[in-house]
Amino acid sequence: MDGGAIARVLSLVSEDPAALVDAFFERREELELMPAGESCGIRTRREEGFAIRLVSGDQTWMVSRDALDGDLVLEAVRRTARRMAQGLALAPRLRPLPWEDSGDRAEMMAFPAEVETRLRKRRLAFPCRLLLRRHRRWIKVIGREFVGDTEVEEFWSLRADLPGGPWGTLVPALTSDAAEKVASSLSGLFRARHAVPPSRGRVDLLLGPSAAAVFLHEAVAHALEIDTLAASGDPESAIGYRLGSRVLDLLDDPASGPPGLRRVTDDEGAPVLRRWLLRRGEVAQPLADRRWARLSATLSPGAGRRQSRHTLPGPRSIHLELLPGRKPVAKLAEEVDHGLFVPEASRGLLDPLSGEFEIHFSHGRELRRGKLEKRVGAFSVRGRLGDLLSRVSAIGSDSSLAGAGWCAKGGQRLPVWSTTPSLLIAGVEVEG
Amino acid sequence: MIGEEGSAVLASLSRRGFEQAEVFAKRGRSRRFEIGPEGVRVTSAEEVGWAVRAGSRGASFYGASSGSPSGDLSWLVPEPGEPLSLPPPSELVEWQDAPESSQPPLGEEEGRRLLLAVAEKLEQEIPGARLRWGALEDGASEVRISNSLGLDVSYRGRLATLALSASTPGPENRSVGARLTAVTAASFPVRSIADRIVDLVSVRQRGRLETEGGCDMVLAPEVCCHLLAALAPAFVGPRRQVADFLQTHQMRVASSAVTLVDDGRHPGGALAAPVDGEGVANGPRVLVEKGRLGESIVPWDEGGPPLGCRRRAGWRDFPRVAPSHLSLAPCADNSASDLIEDLDDGYYLIGVPEATRLPSSSRGFFLPVCGFRVLGGKPVAPLSIATLVGDPRSLLHAIVAVARDMRFVPLDAMIGAPTVSVRGLQLERES
């Protein structure tokens, strides 16, 4: 790809030096392993294309196409430009490399069997339809002043359809550890299938790393996306605001994500940051993309993400990291007189206008002075975001990659990752 | 014509010994206008892609790719599994693509004007209220499906969607949302859409549920569509399974006011098509007729009738069994206002505010709603928010009368409903 030629063509789109002009090139492949016995056992999807974007003032125009072709790029540039002189530019040369080989499928085909073996070791066998997908994406962003390097992402997603409903996760690689974690989650869900929800009331809630990751993603990361903040006022005024307890030190760091997902630049070609979202509970640096950062001296880009070439980028987290505390999780559990331990959260939702937040858990265990007791069924926690975050009383020392999953916002579905320890929330109202 | 390269792909697969093969090709273009905190955004997309599946002697493969069909299939490897079963050509009832299907998408200025007209009307009627976000999308597509058994069908589709989100004036900043569809963006009735948003914002400003519990209600089409969407997957599968889920008594699954139909070629419907995602002719499938369980949604190769029911949202998607255009049949005898006038003491629920609560599986469905308290057939007070609660299995029994109006909402499928009267559902306060 002749990056220089593309940058030169983009420079003709607008004479306004403050305008943001870029080209986003994308190629992606998805390999899907169907459950045993179904037709077309491995399904393959490959696609490529690009988008040209112009942001000028408070207006954005974008044109996207499903091919990598120089003539199409020039045509899209012309359609995007508001005042570009016709006939001045030559079509840039695009000679995409042949597709990489899809790789060895044996590893993929062996994984469901490994999960099943681990379930059997737990003396469990139940109807479960497992769907495994490998996702690979190559992107390159070119602007008027820069030609970004190609960024590559590779990870796996797994969906299990169980009698009680679907469950899913993302893993960076199909390791034995990943199979063990999947089997552990599935067995937890199955064993709690008939458990009665906890009675409504105030309890201490000990979230395992996976549940803590979902809680922080939904409650903090979404709340600190700059477009979410803008929905209810001046986004910059959030900086310095005490959003949660002083024990919360939370970062978004795309460069320290799991192998295969580490990023140098975001989906807008901006270098990623080790970005402090919360420092001792105070808002430090909201998640911003280039569009918002160019309007402000205090916001930094590097958190722009997009689902595909056909969607505009927006500010989102990639890899959250909660700094661990000093106490082991067993110590945190001992501090709970009457509470619940929750290994996983199923979903959460933040209403940006009202600040109302809710999080749902599919199951848990009663917890009394460090002892796990009776299983409990599905329940939820609702409340004001600030109140819930101020109740976080302790962080465990057991940090691990956990709680990865798909996150949908504004019609865009993106993979998100977290490295988090356990987390104790004191005195929250639960309802079954 | 789109997908002409498909015949070469089929010929090549036949030479390689694949007895069954199918090529699906789709080309679409769309324009989207958005206003909101991020300013005005205009995007224009052209999507071109295709999918192939083929099988022989217990091995089969599926692949999908952007671009036009190509004979180089070296990246696809057949795997053993269930044999592939493709439909033979069927006789199609005459089909005319919608006359609007070849019109270009809405222009930039027209799209912008439509959204700004709604915003201006709202600000005029309710000072301090604002349209927080609006998105208008207008798109057209062409599809061609051909297979090695001689099936070859093509058609054009058209769909426009409008999503609006507004907020009430004052510090409480309550939100309301609405989603609409039409065949083209030019056919959206701007004035009545603006009136609807004004009504929704107006009721969201104030009004609390007085008494929790069961009461008579009238549900506007949008509210009824959300409830039907929750029930739609229950109609997929063998009839016995559907009957078990709905806990039928002698196959009576609904009140006699209910006739429920799934029809992928719904006349005049947005995204209506002559065939499903694998080329089987679409047609009306009566799921419930005057309260009695009718057919269930079962594909032709699993014992169902030769009617299309495998949907394919885009070229990337493998066909899956699901409803397409599921609608509750209207009744010409009643207008929406008749149903409200007949309501002696209850609620008229007009909208579903943006999701502030998620559905629960343990207690059936619950849906945040807003509307009016009605006494003696007249709306007397607004209801800002309450939760409509019920068991999906008893939902269809709760519908006691339906009106003649009809609206489709794009949910998991296109779901259509008129205004309905319901009895036996509960309203709870938002805690």
Number of strands of chain A: 24
Oligomer designation: heterodimer
**Can you give the helix content of chain B as a percent range?**
10-25%
Share of β-strand residues of chain A: 35-45%
Secondary-structure-derived class of chain B: alpha+beta
What form of chain A results from the Cα inertia axes? globular
Percentage of residues in strands of chain B? 35-45%
User: How confident overall, as mean pLDDT of chain B?
Assistant: 89
* Rg measurement of chain A, Å: 23 Å
* Structural class computed from helices and strand pairing of chain A: alpha+beta
What's the shape of chain B?
globular
First-last Cα distance of chain A: 56 Å
Give unreliable regions of chain B as ranges.
Answer: none
Question: Can you walk through the features of this model?
Answer:
In chain A, strands 7, 14, 15, 16, 17, 18, 19, 20 and 24 form a nine-stranded mixed sheet that branches. In chain A, strands 8, 9, 10, 13, 21, 22 and 23 form a seven-stranded mixed sheet that branches. Chain A has a six-stranded antiparallel sheet with strand order 3-2-1-4-5-6. Helices cover 20% and strands 36% of the residues of chain A. In chain A, α3 packs across α4. Chain A is α+β, with helices and mostly antiparallel strands and 432 residues long. Chain B is an alpha+beta fold and 431 residues long. Chain B has helices spanning 6-15, 108-125, 190-204, 221-231, 239-246, 336-341, 392-398, and strands at residues 20-36, 39-56, 59-66, 79-80, 130-147, 152-167, 175-182, 213-214, 216-219, 260-262, 285-289, 292-293, 310-311, 320-321, 325-328, 345-351, 365-375, 378-390, 399-402, 407-410, 414-417, 420-422, 426-428. Helices cover 17% and strands 37% of the residues of chain B. Chains A and B meet through β2, β3 and β16 of A and β2, β3 and β4 of B.
Question: Any descriptors?
Answer:
heterodimer, A: 432 residues, alpha+beta, 7-stranded mixed beta sheet, 9 helices, 20% helix, B: 431 residues, 8-stranded mixed beta sheet, 7-stranded antiparallel beta sheet, globular
